[in-house]
Amino acid sequence: MHVAVNALFLQQPHTGSGQYARHLLDALRVVEPALRLSLLDGPLMPRAGQRGENLAKLVWEQGKVAMRAARIGADLLHVPYWAPPLLSPVPVVATIHDVIPALLPEYRGGRLVAAYTKLVGVAARRARRLIVDSECSKRDLARVVGVPADRVDVAPLAASARFRPIDLPVAAAYCRDRWGLERPFVLYVGGNDVRKNVPALLQAWSAASRQLSGHELVIAGTMRREPPFFPDVLGVAARLALPRIRFLGAVSDGEKHQLLGSCTAFVWPSRYEGFGLPPLEAMQTGAPVISSDRSAMPEVVGEAGILVSPDDVEAIAEALVLVASDQALRQRLRVAGLVQAARFSWQRTAELTMASYRRALG
Fold this sequence. Notes:
Blueprint: E1 2-6, H1 16-31, E2 36-40, H2 51-71, E3 76-79, E4 92-96, H3 100-103, H4 111-126, E5 129-132, H5 135-145, E6 152-154, H6 168-179, E7 185-189, H7 198-208, E8 216-220, H8 233-240, E9 245-249, H9 253-262, E10 265-268, H10 277-285, E11 289-292, H11 297-301, E12 306-308, H12 313-325, H13 327-341, H14 346-360
Parallel strand pairs: 1-2, 1-3, 3-4, 4-5, 5-6, 7-8, 7-10, 8-9, 10-11, 11-12
Helix pairs in contact: 1-14, 6-9, 7-8, 7-12, 10-13
């Protein structure tokens, strides 16, 4: 089988789509050595506000990439993000990680973004097969975009092998030396766009911190201030006069690994995820997980974490106190998390992707 791959996001290896493409391609080469992969490089990824570059990206996605796939004799074209071509001379398989732009009003953007979302939605309905990361995304794709469920294949993601259990004292010493973290801490790592629901976590910490006087709340990731899409998290923390809270800013994967290896609990209050890698990374490292019970999170966390409503600040606070104050519970969650995380692997993702390719070719 000869598969052409739209390799546009390999230019941005640290984005979610870039990491997915890199890990999937590596795993496909292992599970199917006879598979021929042709990576089709496109134009430079557009920078914010660069209309000419956005137009070049659109022309690549909707015309040039499919024509190149045909020209090199590919059996099919895989577009590993939500941008399949409307017309293609070869069968198309596309991976749609989530339908957030079509599902959540806050993410629909202006008229150009809305038009683009409508275009790729129509193109998705014409693709031979679609791959999604979760059963939740499959349901939402059928409901919001109108793609028949029998043309959608689920291939869950996996965490990087970097995230593995590490020695707690070693990780704690690293965090103490790197950031001066002397106390035990509960951890959030991620962005602060509106669906991530970070203000609810801050409100929960305000309620829980009195009973967790020995703990800190550590928030890692770039906290942008562009309300309402990026709530002013630092402003919320100041208004609540939160005690013992640290904002670390952006962290590398290596630093994230050390934080996960030394935290009392990892907290993920997101209102919507097509999959949700951070809780899986936490479980694979051995961190107890408190997660939202929405969207794909129950599929990822299963019964290995504490699931709470992201809209129930009191429930989040109670979960923080429960996990931080019960050592036996934390140990049970660590063991259960490692078992749950072992169910996900890039090998399995690649095997399911190969099955989707075969279905696309009949």
